[in-house]
Design brief:
- This protein is an alpha/beta fold and 225 residues long.
- It is 51% helix and 15% strand.
- The chain contains 9 helices and 8 strands.
- Helix 2 crosses helix 4, helix 4 runs parallel beside helix 8 and helix 7 crosses helix 8.
- The structure holds cytidine-5'-diphosphate.
- The site of cytidine-5'-diphosphate has 16 residues, from helix 2, helix 4 and helix 8.
Length: 225
């Protein structure tokens, strides 16, 4: 396992199904980095809203967000919300449908971004999401923007959902991620976009390992050079 600098940050952004999480997780293992799944935090907050039946923009939800404890264990594999393991509950279709509406609320983002920046201060990290290269870690040492065709992304997501025994069609998954892309890219606060200094990677015809190797080559070349 290689180790990059003692306080290095790799930030990756991109839409749903572009491969960010799987790629970031593998790179974290190979390079011995902390892994931050920023989307899991927005998903956890969405679970709070669903369980409490609160509107995304309600002051009560913001209070709950300020008061809640979100913690990762097992290098990002497990997420604890107020000490409860919600790793599975945050990936349901109900959360998928609501999360972009919760994530567009500026006050909620403000709380979550503070938390993410604190985690980033703990050591070398690979972090992925929608605004990691632009807002959370604008000075990241390495920035990547992953993308793929919407059909390819829907196929990947369908395979993941089928592994969890969720009964859903490809058309429904494609509609859900297109809707979420649109909301994430057009929101007023911290929209999904490629940072000017991010390296763009089209993963449509690439395997996970090809993307992992490409990113590691960029990072390590820079470390050596
Ligand atoms: O895994 P997938 O790409 O489907 O989604 P995710 O990374 O878990 O993020 C779920 C949702 O959270 C996104 O569609 C965004 O609405 C929101 N999100 C965000 O606004 N900012 C981030 N840094 C990460 C996620």
């Amino acid at each position: 396992m290689k180790k990059i600098g003692s306080q290095a940050t790799i930030a990756i952004d991109g839409p749903a199904g572009s491969g960010k999480s799987t790629v970031a997780r593998r790179i974290a293992e190979r390079l011995g980095l902390l892994y931050l799944d920023s989307g899991a935090m927005y998903r956890a907050v969405t679970l709070l809203a669903i369980r409490s039946e609160l509107a995304a923009d309600s002051p009560e939800l913001l209070e709950q967000v300020k008061a809640c404890h979100i913690k990762f264990e097992d290098n990002g594999k497990t997420i604890l919300l107020n000490a409860e393991d919600v790793s599975v509950q945050i990936r349901t279709p109900a959360v998928n449908r609501r999360v972009a509406d919760v994530a567009k609320i500026p006050e909620i983002r403000h709380e979550i971004v503070k938390h993410q920046q604190r985690i980033g201060g703990e050591g070398s990290i690979i972090a992925e999401g929608r605004d990691l290269t632009t807002i959370v870690f604008p000075n990241a040492d390495f920035k990547f923007y992953l993308d793929a065709s919407v059909t390819e992304r829907a196929k990947r997501r369908l395979a993941e959902l089928q592994r969890q025994n969720v009964d859903i069609t490809l058309a429904a998954v494609e509609a859900e991620i297109s809707d979420r892309d649109e909301k994430d890219k057009t929101r007023a606060h911290s929209p999904l976009r490629a940072a000017d200094d991010a390296i763009r990677v089209d993963t449509t015809d690439k395997t996970i390992n090809e993307v992992v190797d490409f990113i590691i080559a960029q990072v390590c070349e820079d470390e050596i050079g």
